[in-house]
Design brief:
This protein is of the alpha/beta class. The protein contains 11 helices and 11 strands. Strands 3-4-5-8-9-10-11 form a 7-stranded parallel sheet, with helices on one face. Strands 1-2 form a two-stranded antiparallel sheet. A two-stranded antiparallel sheet has the order 6-7. Helix 4 packs across helix 5. The structure holds NADP nicotinamide-adenine-dinucleotide phosphate (NAP). The site of NADP nicotinamide-adenine-dinucleotide phosphate has 24 residues, from helix 10.
Length: 311
């Protein structure tokens, strides 16, 4: 039977409705399966930079041993671009990664930067050769290092500039004091510190507001638990490095991961996210497939029983 104009209009409306239903289903499924870093919620750095609570560590996109250029430059660019497509809007790097290579790759792949992308870098470690990392916390070095990072990252101001490590030959007050001057000069928006104890963090905070703290912390290494506790209490962002604890995870983690149908590495990230609302993990990888697996962990939630089982 030939449809009347009314039934044809009705059929068209039904088709349009089905179309939007399918679009909605598709976007819900896309969010469920590939997940976005946004699924981890947000955290605010220094009171004004809100980022998704799962970032990306850009140390692994350089050559082997964090030395020199990557074998496949385009692959490194793809990892960075895919991170942004997956909702990552916090990238951690350092002038020492490569050295200089990681910062340069970030600018090549992502400049002009989308609004809201926060790039954190660090100064205070130099690389005299492959395999060696030497602290240099002299104010004149930090000033020159910050200027060089600004140029490589093609930024007027660095969102978060972190002192990579305390130089045992330079009082931390002198190094952090220089970061305070760079902040006053408008070169740095927020100051962060890395590899600090609770006491060192308190000394740094007497000189300048500290927005973030970056220490090694993961399910297998909780030696910075006291620092994390201070950050949670005082609402400083805590950025755990080596978040995946590769090769050091325990049996509890494996059992819970198997029960939940996620990988151990995803569970290690979910465990971190559950430790503190100020936690901002920055898993690093040179592979798009690994990146996708890591970011999907943003949607994994652990019950108190599961957390207790991890140990
Ligand atoms: N402040 C400091 O002193 C300090 C020190 C170290 C690191 N960091 C920062 O912290 C970030 C993370 O630290 P990290 O790289 O040492 O530790 P990580 O993120 O825990 O582990 C990275 C390693 O895990 C592998 N990986 C990542 N995702 C994987 C997956 N889904 N499946 C299998 N393997 C996977 C990577 O290899 P593939 O490339 O093969 O995926 C890489 O070798 C660094 O990028 C850097 O920004 C800071």
């Amino acid at each position: 039977m030939k449809p009347t104009p009314l039934t044809r209009r009705h059929a068209l409306r039904t088709l349009a409705g089905l179309g939007s239903y399918l679009t909605l289903r598709h976007s819900v499924r896309a969010a469920d399966s590939s997940a976005s870093a946004a699924a981890a919620g947000t955290v605010t750095l220094g009171g004004d930079l809100k980022v998704n609570r799962l970032g990306f560590g850009a140390m692994r996109i350089t050559g082997p041993g964090i030395w020199g250029e990557p074998a496949d430059r385009e692959a490194a660019h793809q990892v960075l671009r895919r991170a942004l497509a997956l909702g990552v809007n916090f990238i951690d790097t350092a002038d020492a990664y490569g050295p200089e290579v990681s910062e340069r790759l970030i600018a090549e792949a992502l400049y002009p930067y989308p609004r809201g992308l926060v790039i954190a870098t660090k100064g205070g470690l130099v690389r005299p050769g492959a395999g060696s990392w030497t602290p240099d916390g002299r104010p004149e070095h930090l000033r020159a290092a910050c200027e060089a990072s600004l140029k490589r990252l093609r930024r007027e101001r660095i969102d978060l500039y972190q002192l990579h490590r305390i130089d045992p030959k330079v009082p931390l007050e002198e190094s952090v004091g220089e970061l305070a001057r760079l902040r006053s000069a408008g070169k740095i928006r927020h100051v962060g510190v890395s590899n600090f104890s609770v006491d060192e963090l308190a000394r740094a905070r007497r000189i300048v507001p500290i927005a973030s703290m970056q220490n090694r912390y993961n399910v297998a290494d909780r030696s910075s638990q006291d620092v994390l506790d201070v950050c949670t209490r005082e609402r400083l962002v805590f950025i755990p490095w080596a978040p995946l604890a590769r090769g050091h995870t325990g049996q509890g983690l494996g059992t819970v991961a198997a029960q939940k149908g996620v990988s151990e590495l995803q569970l290690a990230i979910a465990w971190l996210l559950a430790q503190s609302p100020m936690m901002l993990p920055i898993p690093g990888t040179s592979s798009v497939a690994h990146l996708e697996e890591d970011v999907a962990a943003a949607a994994v939630r652990l019950t108190p029983t599961e957390l207790a089982a991890v140990g």
